[in-house]
Design a protein that fits this description.
33% helix, four-stranded mixed beta sheet, six-stranded parallel beta sheet, Dihydrodipicolinate Reductase, domain 2, elongated, single chain, 2 domains, alpha/beta, Rossmann fold, 7 helices
Length: 236
């Protein structure tokens, strides 16, 4: 067996995509868990994660904080793509610091989305100068997507609000098999400007999560994809 030893936590669409792509990215999947444990019902913890070098977590909001804590207890760096749990982030971050562990969290692991967020902030700042213009964000995902708005949509709306100095509403559409499309709409009486990021395959998220896992191994602290891409300075 060769490659960095990876645990995948989550057996939904994203967990399966990460596990499928991992061997191509230099990882060996040595454990694959559902939201609350493995197929035998064994819960996450030091015994279940023995020998694991890094974990990637894509489950549900109610399970994510406990899964992160289980990884910290086992001394395993963990990359988390689950959204909707971030009210717990301050407490979890304090536990990361106290344990000397490592956590990397992101609402979206697409490098394009990380850069798109900066474009949205700048575009909103410029477009807000147009008299009578209204800003709006449209968030489209597959029908099985549980959260609406998505974590990505909330982050983009916050960036647009920061740039424009005004609230930016979000419309969420859940239909078909769309991996993820986010559009900033700037609508004026006689013209409209749109800025769109479209994910064509959810493997872009799996690939980004695996890149984040490779980057995180051996580090300590709390990080985001902006650190991976060199857009933010590393915390001291």
């Amino acid at each position: 067996m060769s490659g960095r030893r990876l645990a995948v936590i989550g057996d939904g669409r994203m967990g399966r995509a990460v596990a499928a792509l991992a061997p191509e990215r230099g990882f060996t999947v040595v454990a694959h868990f559902g939201a609350h444990g493995d197929a035998t019902g064994r819960p996450l913890g030091p015994a279940a994660l023995a020998g694991v070098e890094v974990a990637i977590e894509f489950t549900v909001p109610g399970a994510a904080p406990a899964n992160i804590r289980a990884c910290l207890a086992a001394g395993v760096p963990v990359v988390v793509g689950t959204t909707g749990w971030h009210d717990d982030l301050p407490a979890v971050a304090a536990e990361v610091a106290a344990s000397g562990g490592a956590l990397l969290h992101a609402p979206n692991f697409s490098p394009g989305v990380v850069l798109f967020t900066d474009l949205v902030r700048e575009a909103a700042a410029r477009l807000a100068r147009v008299p009578g213009l209204a800003l709006h964000l449209v968030d489209v995902h597959h029908a099985a997507k549980r959260d609406a708005p998505s974590g990505t949509a909330r982050a983009l709306a916050a960036a647009a609000a920061e740039g424009s100095g005004r609230d930016v509403p979000v419309t969420s559409i859940r239909t078909g098999h769309v991996p993820g499309t986010h559009t900033l709409v700037a609508d004026a009486p006689f013209e409209q400007v749109t800025l769109t990021h479209e994910a064509r395959d959810r493997r872009v998220f799996a690939d980004g999560a695996l890149s984040a896992a490779a980057w995180l191994a051996g580090r300590r602290g709390v990080f985001t994809m902006r650190h991976v891409l060199g857009l933010d300075p590393l915390p001291t």
